[in-house]
Design goal:
The chain is an alpha+beta fold. The protein is built from 22 helices and ten strands. The model has no long low-confidence stretch (mean pLDDT about 80). InterPro entries: ABC1_dom (IPR004147), Kinase-like_dom_sf (IPR011009), Prot_kinase_dom (IPR000719), UbiB_kinase (IPR050154). It comes from Gulosibacter chungangensis.
Length: about 650
């Protein structure tokens, strides 16, 4: 045989194998009902082909009596091994869990970095002996002591871990709706011990963000930062126009560090939720997911710029007596890495000594302005600064209020704003019934809820925690949240965050004017809003707004009425009711029916194959194999494939979280 003939035979065999593999791949996808990667199908088809060829070589090629029967069995074996390989692959490495080959090296690199960070965190956790224990919400001395110990240990772990973990802790310290007061107090003491990055590392990042040398933009630039944090640091600079600005520059490499730490935090939270009663009580995975989303927004200075713009616009929609100064920003110089805004000269409320130069009347005036600004932003505008602690409030050189740090800005729709006003009105009037109705307006109540018991609990809460002479503090939000959660209710952040902001500003008001009557001022504000709401002009405006909202429906109404009356007159009126109108419900039922059908068919064909394989009757294909035996082998293969299809469907639904 010539070399050319051998080469041609090899080429023909390869082409035939390739065509066969393509056919097998198409058949496999149809059998399993799911599109899969070419690499996975090729691998499964190759293993099936090898198994089939090996079987044929052993039992068919040299078998002159049973050759055709053995070839049929070999083809069935190819299909069975291919499907089994795909099912096993789905069990070990579900579709989509393995990155593409070009992503393997970066994935390995991230895995190594993650393991090193895990080891570091394990040493820190072991050092502070943080163990997952149940979180007790009762107010016994023993429970309060246990919570305080847990909180101090958690603070120490987060502080030593640094990076995103400190930022997550700092964000948690502003969420009394999620954690007990002991944790809020402990996490509020978190300090990020990060030295300023050197100018040699900052300068290239600044130039790259500006798209030119920074000297072309700034007339002067102090290369020593006057403020430094984990994400960025702030410099004092002057534009060529003579305007003094604050330039916030993100630390080089911090995004990769944040991504690594947030990935680890999510993995730890998932494990913590699954294996700890405390983690399950905290809903740790969902909580950390929300916190990491907030942190990633904080890393992108464009989000802060957008928040600043929203609050600047809000000042134009509030009364003059409620306006505060929002620094001007320079969007043409700002990017995701650099944020340039007006430099505010003055001192923050955290420096109490700066208030000594203000007389009592001025301090009272500023306190009233700050409270009015906060309440009007929440109730009237729906965009508010949600972190008004003393360090974020400045008294400028003209003795006017200004705000800093726009990383946390809340937004509310008109319905939420009205409900918040209802809660404040009920609080100032000490009306437990109105308070209960206003709180329930925020929530979706399930059908099996003991609503009468919940109403009694809320009324008792109003009487004991918010009655006459009680002190307003952050624990109020925490307590009402825990009360609602004890009834299995999901408390939206849109409900808790505005009240947390109001309580936070109450602390700043006390610093600004210790004699400030917070409750009286809030009562005065909501009373004016309630009176304004029933004035003829307000009622007319509300009716006009409702009419405008209903106008499209009103326009369609005559046509619909005409069609209905026409159908009634002609006896064609009827209605359709669909039990499975939602596509997801239909898909779920379809999948369950298909799985049960395949399972029944697998069982039936399996039983039939056993009966046929044990049969000694029927036309003989060889001295040892009858036609019925051959059908038995084929049905056995079909039964195996159908069983694997059922297993594959179960694994696929588990991967999608369908139970």
């Amino acid at each position: 045989m010539s070399a050319l003939t051998v080469s041609l035979d090899i080429v023909l065999m390869l082409v035939a194998a390739l065509v066969f593999m393509l056919l097998i791949g198409s058949l496999l996808q149809r059998l399993l009902g799911k599109r899969m990667s070419r690499a996975r199908i090729t691998f499964a088809g190759l293993l099936g082909l090898i198994a089939g060829v090996a079987f044929a070589a052993r039992f068919a090629w040299n078998n002159t009596t049973d050759r055709f029967a053995m070839i049929a069995i070999a083809l069935s074996l190819i299909l069975f091994v291919s499907v089994a390989t795909l099912v096993l692959a789905e069990l070990v490495l579900p579709q989509g869990s393995l990155p593409r080959p070009d992503k393997w090296l970066p994935a390995v690199r991230r895995g190594v970095q993650r393991q090193r960070r895990y080891q570091q965190l394990a040493r820190i956790i072991g050092k502070h002996k943080v163990l997952p224990r149940a979180l007790h919400h009762d107010n016994t001395v023993q429970a309060m002591t246990a919570r305080r110990e847990q909180a101090d240990a958690l603070r120490a772990v987060l502080e030593d871990a640094g990076g995103a973990f400190v930022k997550i802790g700092q964000i948690l310290s502003t969420r009394p709706d999620l954690l007990p007061q002991e944790f809020i107090t402990a996490l509020g003491k978190l300090q990020q011990q990060v030295p300023p990055a050197s100018w040699e590392t900052i300068e290239p990042a600044l130039n790259a963000s500006l798209g030119r040398d920074y000297r072309e933009v700034f007339q002067s630039f102090h290369t020593e930062p006057f403020a430094s944090a984990s994400i960025g640091q702030v410099y004092d600079a002057t534009l060529h126009s003579g305007e003094r600005v604050a330039v916030k520059v993100r630390r080089p490499g911090i995004v990769d560090r944040i991504n690594l730490d947030t990935d680890i935090a999510l993995r730890l939270a998932r494990t913590f939720t699954q294996n700890s009663e405390w983690g399950d009580q905290l809903h740790a995975e969902h909580l950390v997911q929300n916190l990491t989303d907030s942190l990633k927004e904080e890393v992108d200075y464009r989000c802060e710029a957008a928040n600043l713009a929203v609050l600047a616009h809000a000042q134009t929609e509030v009364a003059e007596s409620a306006r505060v100064r929002i620094p001007r920003q320079y969007p043409e110089l700002s990017t995701d890495e650099v944020f340039v805004m007006e430099y505010l000269e003055g001192t923050t409320l955290s420096h109490i000594s700066s208030l000594e130069s203000l007389d009592a009347a001025k301090r009272h005036e500023l306190a009233r302005r700050l409270l009015a600004s906060t309440l009007e932003q929440i109730v009237d505008v729906g965009a508010y600064h949600s972190d008004l602690h003393p360090g974020n409030i400045v008294i400028d050189t003209e003795q006017q209020l200004a705000l800093l740090d726009f990383g946390a800005v809340g937004r509310l729709d008109s319905q939420m704003r009205q409900q918040i006003l209802d809660v404040l009105l009920a609080y100032t009037r000490h009306d437990s019934r109105a308070f209960t109705e206003a709180i329930l307006g925020f929530l979706d109540l399930p059908d099996d809820l003991d609503e009468a018991s919940l109403r009694r609990s809320l009324a008792d809460f109003m009487a004991t925690k918010l009655g006459v002479g009680t002190k307003l503090d952050a624990s109020i939000v925490t307590d009402v949240t825990h009360l609602l959660q004890s009834y299995g209710l999901v408390v939206p952040a849109q409900m808790t965050m505005p009240f947390r902001a109001i309580i936070a500003v109450e602390g700043s008001l006390t610093v600004l004017d210790p004699s400030f009557n917070f409750l009286a001022e809030v009562a005065s504000f909501v009373k004016h809003r309630a009176v304004d709401a029933v004035k003829p002009a307000s009622v007319t405006k509300a009716l006009a707004d409702e009419a405008l909202g209903a106008l499209p429906m009103i326009r369609r109404l005559p046509g619909r009425v005409d069609r209905i009356t026409g159908d009634l007159a002609e006896g064609r009126f009827g209605f359709n009711m669909r039990l499975l109108a939602d596509r997801r419900d239909r898909d779920f039922i379809r999948e369950i029916v298909a799985t049960v059908t395949f399972a029944v068919l697998a069982g039936v064909t399996g039983i039939m194959s056993v009966l046929l394989l044990n049969s000694t009757t029927g036309p003989a294909l060889s001295p040892e194999v009858t036609l019925l035996n051959l059908f038995g082998y084929l049905l056995l293969s079909i039964s195996g494939v159908l069983s694997l299809r059922v297993l594959f469907d179960v694994l696929r639904r588990r991967g999608r979280g369908i139970h």
